[in-house]
Amino acid sequence: MSAAKTYRVGIIGGGAIAQACHIPGYVRNADVQLVALADPDPARLRELSALDPTIRAYTEPLAMLAQEKLDIVSVCSPNAFHAQQTVDALKAGCHVLCEKPMAVSLSETDAMIAAAKSARRKLMVGFTHRLFSGPRKCRELLDEKAIGKPFMIRVRFAHGGPFPGWAKSRWFYDPKLAAGGALLDMGIHAIDLCLWLMGPIVSVSARTATLVKRIPVDDNAVMLLEFKSGALGYIEVGWTSKPGFAGCEIYGTEGSLICDYLKGLHMVGGVVSASGKDTHDWRLIERHPTEGGWKIEIDHWLDVVRGKEKLTMDGKAGRAALRVALAAYESSKSGKRVALDKE
What we know:
Number of strands: 15
Mean pLDDT: 95
Shape: globular
Helix content: 25-40%
CATH topology of the largest domain: Dihydrodipicolinate Reductase, domain 2
CATH class of the largest domain: Alpha Beta
Oligomer: single chain
Strand order of the largest sheet: 14-13-12-11-7-10-9-8-15
Radius of gyration: 21 Å
């Protein structure tokens, strides 16, 4: 029996998401050798050296790709660089895990998808919330029709913002590097969950605003969604939130799924009547619905590369979520509902 292949891995971008998810995920996997990281910021390279001095440091991604003969690359750079760096890595013969959002324009996503097809390599987008135990169980229960026909979804993801406190710099607040604010950062996760759980979205109405922070991008956003199935959806995201609800709620004809990221996933039955004579039947499904996520993302990705897991968070999924996000920005600017016509 032949020995398992050892994959040579490089990372582009050494900031917070690389340090919290990608670097530790690769380091603890026995089938991987993390050999290099590219980042133009000397501070990130110093942090890398402190984490693991054996990883070779580059200031230019192309130099890393040319010299290291890599099998896998994670793209963890600011949003504006995702497309070109992903295409470069694919052309170099690497499988690529690209952080969300996949890119900042649909034409860029098309180029990435085409590059993956041409190179015959796998391209996955880092939609981490699909790897949380709560949303995964919601998907299973919806497939089983446990709450009947779903007709409404609500998603709320909000915190105090990426910087200061988590991100290594203010690039999230730079329109040239980020191309959007809270809607593109956190909203892209929420949009992807809605697509994954409820199916295609046919229209969006949205309002973005900068309510609290003195930044040139949106720090809060709300979206109203219409699904091909006829269901409706509501998304709220923000970078200015104090503690409150985070997670998703799905309402069906026979029950509800309340996936509170802090309090657990519950399936709820009973009746809520106009008279106020309500009956509730709460059943705990998952006590810790955020188990998984970053902890398992790299293992999942490597299983995708090996062919052990089906690639579902692919370029098509990344493009679909970005399409809705861009339509939301268009709606907010115009004040009008934006229909997503068939392409």
